[in-house]
């Protein structure tokens, strides 16, 4: 049996997870009792040509598996699914802003804080992809921008940031289930432009700057917050001081990307191992950039957008 890839554009890579097919041992060469499973991961399979006279072909539903035993041994081709990459415009946030934090909880996305010109926001707006609708939720107690946010056990922890006059060490937690906020233990170092990532239900607040100007000296600070005990602990510092970086976790490690040195954008990529409390350099970004957005999907980290003198449409995947 073969995979027919003629429908896939040249140069396109189809993830191996989308080509999973399991063929069991042949039970009888005369009765064709070989079981075949084609796993439709996110998309459907298209059946190829073959001896299908004595069976009804099942419909593969995205995200499900199916099997059929009779006369499946003579299939000649399975066509792997392919969908071209594309962006779709969705409804805009009710409040135009930048320097806000974005996280997801229970299939809903929360945009928190931020600024627009000289105005700092404490707004919380929830986007539900299922209904394609934005909803305004209970605001934070303190307006702030260039803050960090992370999710542990269904709650959103919002850390640091700045207002018009100073950096902040605030730590507030938002519970989407009750639409309420509570104040938690503050960081030891007030900072803005920091990044946050979660490993094993602990939050790591990384980098940032204590000053509020772009020319302010950035930090290498790495602090671990445990929501279970409401305590902070100092951890090994990054090698490179930077603010306006992004961080994401994958496979139990944290990756810190890009950032601002106080004078230039950076292409740094450093990996933090919480178990050994150590940092290691990894392959740098192909472009210098700060203020990047990041998201983890499976074991891949997606880096989107950013700034390097001018706004750029950086679109990278780190594996």
Keywords for this structure?
319 residues; mainly beta; Neuraminidase; 2 domains; four-stranded antiparallel sheet; 29 strands; 0% helix; globular; disordered N terminus
Q: What does this molecule look like?
A:
- The protein contains no helices and 29 strands.
- By secondary structure, the protein is mostly beta strands.
- It has two domains: 1-86, no CATH class; 101-318, 6 Propeller (Neuraminidase), CATH 2.120.10.
- The strands form nine sheets. The chain has a four-stranded antiparallel sheet with strand order 7-8-11-12, with no helix packed on it. It has a four-stranded antiparallel sheet with strand order 13-14-15-16, with no helix packed on it.
* CATH top level label of the largest domain: Mainly Beta
Structural class of the helices, strands and pairings? mainly beta
Number of helices: 0
Low-confidence stretches: 1-5, 13-82
> What string gives the helices and strands in order?
EEEEEEEEEEEEEEEEEEEEEEEEEEEEE
Biggest sheet, in brief?
Answer: 4 strands, antiparallel
Brief digest:
By secondary structure, this protein is mainly beta. It is built from no helices and 29 strands.
Give the helix/strand layout.
Elements: E1 2-3, E2 21-23, E3 36-40, E4 46-47, E5 64-68, E6 77-79, E7 101-105, E8 108-112, E9 115-116, E10 119-120, E11 124-128, E12 133-137, E13 148-152, E14 155-159, E15 171-175, E16 180-183, E17 195-199, E18 202-206, E19 222-226, E20 231-234, E21 246-250, E22 253-257, E23 269-273, E24 278-281, E25 293-297, E26 300-304, E27 307-308, E28 310-311, E29 315-318
Parallel strand pairs: 1-6
Antiparallel strand pairs: 2-3, 3-5, 4-6, 7-8, 8-11, 9-10, 11-12, 13-14, 14-15, 15-16, 17-18, 18-19, 19-20, 21-22, 22-23, 23-24, 25-26, 26-29, 27-28
């Amino acid at each position: 049996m073969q995979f027919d890839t003629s429908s896939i554009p040249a140069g396109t890579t189809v993830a191996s997870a989308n080509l999973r097919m399991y063929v069991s041992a042949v039970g009888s060469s005369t009765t064709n009792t070989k079981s075949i499973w084609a796993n439709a991961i996110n998309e459907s399979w298209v059946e190829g040509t073959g001896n299908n006279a004595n069976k009804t072909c099942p419909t593969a539903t995205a995200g499900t598996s199916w099997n059929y035993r009779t006369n499946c041994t003579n299939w000649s081709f399975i066509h792997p699914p392919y969908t071209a990459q594309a962006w779709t415009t969705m409804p805009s946030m009710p409040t135009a802003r930048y320097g806000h934090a974005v996280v997801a909880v229970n299939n809903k996305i929360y945009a928190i804080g931020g600024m627009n010109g000289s105005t700092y926001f404490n707004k919380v707006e929830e986007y539900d992809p299922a209904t394609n609708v934005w909803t305004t939720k209970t605001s934070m107690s303190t307006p702030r921008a260039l803050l960090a946010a992370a999710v542990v056990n269904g709650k959103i922890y919002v850390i640091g940031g700045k207002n018009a006059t100073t950096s902040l060490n605030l730590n507030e937690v938002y519970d989407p289930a009750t639409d309420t906020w509570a104040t938690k233990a503050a960081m030891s170092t007030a900072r803005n432009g920091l990044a946050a990532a979660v490993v094993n239900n602990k939050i790591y607040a990384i980098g940032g700057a204590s000053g509020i100007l772009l020319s302010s000296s950035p930090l290498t600070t790495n602090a671990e917050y445990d929501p279970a005990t409401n305590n902070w602990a100092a951890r090994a510092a990054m090698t490179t001081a930077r603010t306006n970086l992004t961080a994401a976790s994958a496979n139990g490690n944290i990756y810190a990307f890009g950032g601002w040195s106080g004078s230039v954008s950076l292409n740094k990529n450093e990996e933090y191992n919480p178990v050994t409390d150590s940092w290691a350099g990894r392959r740098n970004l192909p472009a210098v950039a700060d203020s990047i957005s990041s998201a983890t999907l499976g074991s891949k980290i997606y880096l989107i957008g950013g700034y390097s003198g001018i706004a750029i449409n950086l679109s990278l995947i780190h594996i």
